[in-house]
Amino acid sequence: MEKRTAYHSIYEKLGAPMIDFGGWKVASHITSSNDEYMMVRSNVGFAEYDFQSCFGVCGPESFQFIQELIVNDLGKITPGGTIYSSILDDKASLIDDVIVFWISEDQFMIHGGITRDASRKWILEKADGRKVWVTELSNTFLSIQGPKSINVLQQAVDIADLEHNRLVHVDFHGVPTTIARVGFSGELGYEVHFGPEYAHGMWEKFTEYCAKYGGGPAGLMAAFPIAVDKGFLFGADFYAGGSPLEYGLGWSVAFDKGFFHGRDEMLRRKQAGLRTKLVGIEADTTEPQIAGGLKLTCGPKKNAGETTIGWVSPLLERNIGRAWVNSEFAEPGTELEVQSNGGPKKVKVTASYRFFDPKGERVRVNPREMLKV
After folding, report:
1. Residue limits of the Aminomethyltransferase C-terminal domain (predicted)?
2. Per residue in 74-102, pLDDT tens?
């Protein structure tokens, strides 16, 4: 059965082309994916991601429950903070990558991706018998991203002092709202959460406010070039047989915090040596772009791995992407042949899959300084 977000009728009025994404009908783009990408990088844009999962967790054991559920250490943050992590099964296979919002002392929100059913099943199973209550939340949110995002929100609320990975509860022109300084773009950005009854009114406000700064709404496809050049993983990047270690997310794994699901298996892999690795790749031609799902070989048809995603970055003007490869082929500079009839014939392994702003400086800018620009 086709699933629709709270914004479907808005897309129909805009005449936006619709695509299927995990069973959800979502807007591909409003203008074009490349234009919307540049809009976010240069000014400001907003999009909705109602298809993503969102679970509320509360109760006296909620902190310890989430500590065992995620690979990162919830103790790194305090109430009002957010943290990126992964939820794994006991074989270290990814169930979902998530952002945990610490709302209050014993109240949390787990904001995940497209694997809603698998996440629900796993979380509820592990909550059984614990002093926690898990609820699938019906709230919606708009993600507003780009250097001018603070200028847009500042028209309604003063959040210029909100730090990166922190959240605040505010009244947004009469709408009870939670704003978190997080997002998918690698730019200054915010997620604005509210009840679904306010969805259309908030969309109209965001459209009005963004227009003053050369921005507007964006569709799902703008997220692809953003994710490729920034190094944000999704979809096929989380290939079967991998874990946060192979995916290059080892920085988010807190082995020293004690038990969590997938810990023993990842420790075993770490000690034995990783067999595969997610790497950045680049072709020496800008057309056609690297596609996902293509076999990679090295030498006389020796299997090396498979591409996961690719895009010609509108800003960097480079044909870049990611692939999982057997560890022997993960050295930067390794040349691999692409088994494709229509795409680039060769790619080279890059030093990192974070091509744009690899140190993450843009996302940590001082919002008050941005207001002066």
Report:
1. 277-351
2. 999 999 999 999 999 999 999 999 999 99
Q: Which residues pair with 102 in a beta bridge?
A: 108
Greater model confidence, 343 or 127: 127
Q: Are 108 and 58 in contact (CB under 8 A)?
A: yes
- For the domain that residue 332 is a member of, what is the CATH number? 2.40.30.110
Pairing of strands 54-58, 107-111: antiparallel
| Domain end among 235, 257, 274 | 235
Within a domain: residue 361?
Answer: no
Instruction: Please tell me whether residues 277 and 200 are part of one structural domain.
Output: no
The Cα angle at residue 228 between residues 323 and 17, in degrees rounded to 5: 115
Contact 188, 146 (CB under 8 A): yes
Q: Are residues 219 and 97 in the same domain?
A: yes
Reference 127, options 55, 52, 53, 54; nearest CA is 55
Paired tokens of 367: 């919002």
Q: State the Cα–Cα distance between residues 296 and 290, nearest whole angstrom.
A: 12
pLDDT at residue 217 is higher than 90: yes
Check whether residue 35 and residue 120 sit in a common domain. yes
**One-letter amino acid identity for 244?**
P
Q: Are residues 192 and 330 in the same domain?
A: no
Q: Indicate the DSSP class of residue 74.
A: G
